[in-house]
Design goal:
single chain, 192 residues, alpha+beta, SMI1/KNR4-like, 6 strands
């Protein structure tokens, strides 16, 4: 990826108050991927190997406790199970909803296990690990209230920190109009 593009986004994020530490090394990336059983999509990998954001809700992949990272990775399933129990959420393709909550949770758990892993970026914003190519959309995930928050990583940055990218009075206005959003197995179905 172009260094100038990475530098531009890092500079604007710094103006927005995001702190950075030195970039992750290739070995650190590999260790993280092995530890948590996912692969960073190339655009996120390139950004993290350019500079590591560590504030404003970003995951500090170098120093955050493993249990906290596992909690963040589990947040989408946890929210789904909450909505199964409390808000009558159930996907038609899962068949008839079982009477047992434990059985229902297991069906949801299996569906999420087979779906692309959602990798936390910051707060409750996630990017899928599959397909492992640049340009995956970023999702905002709060229980089963899931929306697109960016057509890709950089559109996400522009939406999350819109004041700094677009100027005063400019706030999140949805993903880029007219841009095709890559369909992500399972997760895009929840949005659409």
């Amino acid at each position: 990826m172009e260094t100038a593009k990475l530098e531009y986004y890092k500079n604007v994020l710094e103006k927005a108050g995001v702190s950075f530490t030195p970039a992750l090394t290739a070995r650190e990336i590999q260790n993280i991927e092995e530890e948590y059983s996912f692969r960073f999509p190339p655009d996120l990998r390139d950004f993290l190997m350019f500079a590591l954001p560590v504030s404003n809700g970003f995951i500090n992949w170098r120093h955050t406790e493993k249990e906290r990272i596992r909690d963040r990775l589990g947040w989408p399933l946890e929210g789904m199970c909450f909505d199964i129990e409390n808000n009558v959420f159930w996907r038609a393709e899962w068949g008839e909803r079982p009477a047992s909550l434990n059985v229902a949770f297991n069906i949801a758990r299996e569906a999420v296990k087979n779906a692309p892993t959602l990798i936390p970026i910051a707060s409750h914003r996630y990017i899928p690990d599959r397909p492992n190519e640049p340009g995956n959309p970023v999702f905002s995930v709060h229980q089963t209230d899931i929306i697109y928050y960016g057509t890709d990583l950089f559109d996400y940055f522009e939406n999350e920190f819109s004041y700094y990218f677009r100027g005063p009075g400019q706030y999140f206005r949805g993903v880029r109009h007219g841009c095709e959003i890559k369909h992500i197995e399972f997760w895009s179905n929840l949005v659409e």
